[in-house]
Amino acid sequence: MALLAMMALAAWGAHRWLAEPPPPAVLTAKVEKGELEDLVLASGVVQALRQVDVGAQANGQLKSLKVEAGDKVKQGQLLAEIDPEDSLNDLRAAEASLDARFAQREAKQASLRQAEQELARQRRMRAEGSTSDKDWLAADTAYRTLKAGLAELQAQIRQDQSQLDSRRTKLGYTRILAPMDGEVLEIVTQQGQTVIATQTVPVILKLADLSKVTVRAYVAEADVIRVKAGLPVYFTVLGAPDQRYWGKLRAILPMPEKINNAMFYKALFDVPNPDGKLRVDMTTQVSIVLARVDGALSVPLSALGAAGKDGRYAVKVKGKDGRLEERQVRIGMKTSTRAQVLDGLKAGEQVVTGEQPDKPEEGGAVMVSA
Asked: Which residues form the Multidrug resistance protein MdtA-like barrel-sandwich hybrid domain (predicted)?
């Protein structure tokens, strides 16, 4: 029995000495097939495509507000009224002044007809030699003076008519109408407040058309040189992280904005909003698509080894038996985390992304480096 035990121990030792070493412990990732996108990420804010600050051009007390915040209005709809008494009194004064001018014109016209008849009589008498040059000259001067006075009065009537039209327009300013279809975002001036439109136009309310919204994305200085107008873009909002809203980049504004000592450029794109889910000042996570491939095989960037002269990369593949095999693969599009594999690998294969850290011995200490 002792001899048998020694022979078994010798056989086990020989097997361990002659056997192949175990495969190294490595970290692996699967070759995946799916959508691959090269993106520029940015944060953004939803803004109304068309927004108007509806103000007042007339002075007076805000007599009534016809809408509330959140109401949807149509173009030309009455939004508010300012007390019209002052404007109405000015209009009545302008009408009375114009009526007085009309009366003066009638008197002037009567005097002019009389002077014209007298001048005609003096002409006949002068031709007959029965009047003096002095009387004829006086009649001619009186006629010319009255004619010039009537022309001056006509100019005054036009001026008063213009004043009347201006007063009528200002009276119309007391009725504040919606300049477009939209939604009332905010009521700035409350009913009963006095508005004075002498130097600046006081804002009564803010109106916006939210059937289509604009997203203002803030693109970092390092990324802005990679983007251009016309690129496809999508975004998500906090309330619906799985729903993508698609658009096309409309413009990149030339002036940057400094945020926390970093420069950001504003990229604009428009998105339809028929159901009204997108609201002003919503925060968005924007993805600008530089390139996109559907059904692409891809591996993590950490799986790529050194590139050869032919442009192919060395990749280690772990087989079903645990053994490692090195292959040369051709790479297409790269993103910030993955690379497209054009040939050399198949979907489902395991590629090496790093070495498995050694497990500490039981009771041993683990050193963590900062």
From this structure: 50-205
Q: Which two tokens stand for residue 274?
A: 């028929």
pLDDT (0 to 100) of residue 357: 63
Q: Which pTM value belongs to this model?
A: 0.67
Query: Domain range spanning residue 96?
Result: 84-173
Residue 72 lies in a domain: no
Q: What is the DSSP string of 295-326?
A: EEEEEEGGG---B-TTS-EEEEEE-TTS-EEE
What residue type is assigned to position 44 of the chain?
G
CA atoms 337, 341, 345, 346: torsion sign: positive
CA distance 306 to 314: 6
Within this chain, do residues 34 and 88 fall inside the same structural domain, yes or no?
no
Tell me if 315 sits within 8 A of 355, measured CB to CB: no
Q: Is residue 56 part of a domain?
A: no
**E-assigned strand segments in the chain:** 26-30, 32-55, 60-65, 72-73, 78-82, 175-177, 182-187, 194-195, 203-220, 232-237, 240-259, 262-272, 283-300, 313-318, 324-334, 338-343, 350-355
Residue 237: name the closest of 273, 274, 278 by CA: 278
Place of tokens 């809203």: 245
Q: Based on the number of CB atoms within 10 Å of its own CB, is 298 exposed (0-12), middle (13-18) or buried (19 or more)? A: buried
Domain end call among 152, 173, 194: 173
Q: How many domains does the chain have?
A: 2
Residue located via tokens 């014109």:
105
Distances (CA, A) of 329 to 297, 298, 309, 310: 12, 11, 13, 10
Note whether residue 370 is domain-resident. no
Over residues 292-342, the pLDDT tens digits come to 999 899 999 999 988 888 889 999 999 888 888 899 999 999 988 899 999
7 in a structural domain: no
CATH number at residue 126: 1.10.287
Spell out the SS3 assignment of 191-249.
Answer: CCCEECCCCCCCEEEEEEEEEEEEEEEEEEHHHHCCCCCCCEEEEEECCEEEEEEEEEE
Choosing from 173, 197, 226, the residue where a domain stops is 173
Give the pLDDT of residue 23: 60
